[in-house]
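Hi R.,

Here's the chain you asked about this morning:
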Amino acid sequence: MRISYSLLLAAVLCAASCRKQDREETIPLPGNREALSLLLDSVYLYAQQLYYWNKQLPSFEQFAPRSYANGAPGADLDHLRKELFELTRFAVNPATGQPYELHPYHTGLPKYSTIVDPRDPSSYKPEELSAVEALKAGVGNFGLSLAAAGDNDIRIVTASKGGAAAGAGLKRGDRVQAVNGRTVATTDAFYSYASTALSGATVKLEMADGKSGVVKQVTLVNITYAPNPLYKEQLLDAGGEKIGYFAYERFTEEQNTRAYLDPLFKRFAQQGVRTLIVDLRYNGGGFQNTCRYLANMIVPVSADGQVMFKEYYNPLMQSGQATILKQQYILDGGGNPVMVDGRAATLNDIDYSVEANTSKFEKTGGLAALKRVYFIVSGQTASASELLINSLKPYMDVRLIGVSYQGGAVRTYGKPVGFFDISVNRYKLYLSLYQNKNAKEEGDFFAGMPADVSVLDDPSYDFGDVRDPAVHSIMNIEAPGQYPRAMATARTGAGFPVRAVGPVAATQYGLIKQVSELHLRR
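And the predicted structure, written out as tokens:
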């Protein structure tokens, strides 16, 4: 049975926790300062017990949650986000002297934790969990993202399978010549115009094929489509040896990913693939159980039964003393309480010990004897993608090829933490709850994983094209005679502003753990 959970926590919990009089459970209305104060209390109290770095938080009195109800008027969610942001400033990474949740380019947002209103899609922001629902079900937009590849040269970066763009035959590397009749330009004004156009119901594009240069006119209609996370698969030749390649968009729910990757791995196995390239350059993560599936498909048979990864919750949760979780009831797929020993089960019944949250390899399919796996990564490669890489490192030759638009040394996003949602009345709170470590206890990549080789990300070439700098650098390692060292691309020093345009390429999904993956305490 697939279990999902939601909250019964409301103002009555906040009142009890803060030693106030009992109140009737209500959904707070904007501008209701008393209800907002209770919500602010709740966010702090959950963080005090559940946050991975809870030992570094100040006391309730020192932090004064209700002070965040003061100041300029605004939506309740704005006040809650401000509180959460300030809470995440206290946990400091001793290796850097900076907060663990210091965001690399959004100074007002935590890097990992967030709070959203599931009733309001606009409350989901791109650098938070804006694509969680897209991971679960349909995706709504043209399935398209763009970026500059040169002066006045804008290319398709991604075209999601099932989306309108891919359905019209568009692919990575195709050149955009006009949007709704407006000729492209690598200027802020055009970027703004194109972003607005790609958010509409329809868009007209003049396109030139990335290989042939043939020009065509296409009209795309904004549709909702089922996710297909496989951008591209390819068999490459390196001196007579077959190298398998696939570009993977995101860690969708396991059943969805299996539908596309099971046949792929079967084909690769039949072709005798011994070296694999997994392109995760735009993969911001997704479901942890899907990461587990993919790791089992890639790891050698010799790792069967060995530790894949371990989850470390804070000591209070590991000892079963995070009693605030008694307010979080576990519901089945029909919204009914899950019963344990004749009573409704809560998240306090879950075993958060390391032993109960250690995943081991279960090798039942996939590629049996890979000698090496390359991962193409970028600063957008995050969470479940990083967990996959880290889990495989103790058992096989893993190499990272980094790409960026700016050039220079590349590191992944740096997200070794995960979460499941905690409901606070109408809101969903996502706190950094646990850290993942591999069999060698490695997992402190808060600043990202460094790439072994760093090259430019050139959207002029489709996924899997051997002329792509990342793919070519791998082929040069595997068959240097067949693939001589690549020359610098024309993009180097071109002097144009690089900008991604569109909703797909910069999305972070987080590392999502489902309740069905949790284990009851014995």
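The first strand starts at residue 3 and ends at 5.

Let me know if you need anything else.
M.
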